[in-house]
């Protein structure tokens, strides 16, 4: 059950990221879009990082604070991307229970948390 609970929690986190609309179908396409969006932001960070680093290092100076901040920022985005990828891997098409908000498999007839009928 622990693994299952974990998967449900992961899916819930994804709902928080992608959408909170009750009954809306969350599909892999939306998650893939989110992942692509995070990746493109990281790419821009890399560019910024490269420019700052180059300007600094060519004058023989130490690693600037700004660079350390961007690296921390990139790490955060990478972690988010990994989370989204994990969720994508464990996600079939899901719906949000209209009563309790729990993530439910699209094919489910009843919520496995509160027992509400699900018929989207
Ligand atoms: Zn429910």
How is this fold's topology laid out?
Elements: H1 2-18, H2 28-57, H3 65-90, E1 94-96, E2 103-105
Antiparallel strand pairs: 1-2
Helix pairs in contact: 1-3, 2-3
How is the main sheet built?
A: 2 strands, antiparallel
- Largest beta sheet: strand ordering: 1-2
Poorly predicted runs are none
The total strand number stands at 2
How do the SSEs run, as a string of H and E?
A: HHHEE
Spatial gap, N to C terminus: 26 Å
Q: How big a fraction of the residues is strand?
A: 5-15%
Q: What structural category characterises the helix and strand content?
A: mainly alpha
Oligomer: single chain
Shape: rod-shaped
Q: What small molecules accompany the polymer chains? A: zinc ion
Mean pLDDT: 78
Structure description:
This protein starts with a helix and ends in a 15-residue tail after the last strand. It is rod-shaped, with a radius of gyration of 20 Å. It is built from three helices and two strands. It has one domain (22-105). It is mainly α and 120 residues long. The mean pLDDT is 78. The protein has a two-stranded antiparallel ribbon.
Brief overview:
The chain has 120 residues and is mostly helical. The protein has one domain (22-105). Helices cover 61% and strands 5% of the residues.
